[in-house]
Amino acid sequence: NAPYLQAAGIGAFGYVFTVIIADSIRRSLTDYDDELAARLRVIDELEAVEAATGAVKRSHADRMINAEVERVRRYGRNLTLVILGPDEWEEIVHQRGDEAAARLISEVGHAYLDNARSIDRIIHLSGPDFGALLPETGLDGAQVVAEKLANLASGLFGTQVRAGIAGFPEDDVTGTGLVAEAEEALSFARIAQITVASRSLLS
Questions:
Q1: In angstroms, what is the C-alpha Rg of the chain?
Q2: How far is CA 31 from the centre of its chain?
Q3: d(CA 15, CA 162)
Q4: The dihedral of CA 149, 152, 154, 160: what is its sign?
Q5: Measured distance CA(195)–CA(91) in Å, rounded
Q6: Could you give the CA distance from residue 165 to residue 4 in angstroms, rounded to a whole number?
């Protein structure tokens, strides 16, 4: 029986060794998958950011806004969107030229970022217009932020910057709706010649 027992022992050892190796490989592959997923998330975030302004690209903004809307809907939190834009932009471009105007947009974008919280997202919508997505912020708090950013940008642009605000769930409960409502509020601010307009004031 000795040879049989010896063979059985070797077989058991081989089985345990195989299990250990397989478990080690499985853990390594899981760690690799986690690391790869983390790297892909970083790459996706980097691709979403515009080099010139440091803000989120417009092409990535809708997905980001919709994801944030779903989050606040699920947990019953506040969310506001502020859209900012200067008056007389075409006149500024005409006076300074395209290159100087592009540098100005870049400067303003970085100024917005420097004055935003870490949880806020600055979005470059088009031309000189930017958006600020403000999680955990109601309309009153967004009013304060909008006035601060508008005054900051007015000094840089050399002309009045105005802002429109839309809040979740007061003004709309979809990402697309929030953008549309904030744009309408900005248009109202320009017509009324006021610095900040809240979409709730228009209804």
A1: 26
A2: 28
A3: 72
A4: positive
A5: 19
A6: 82
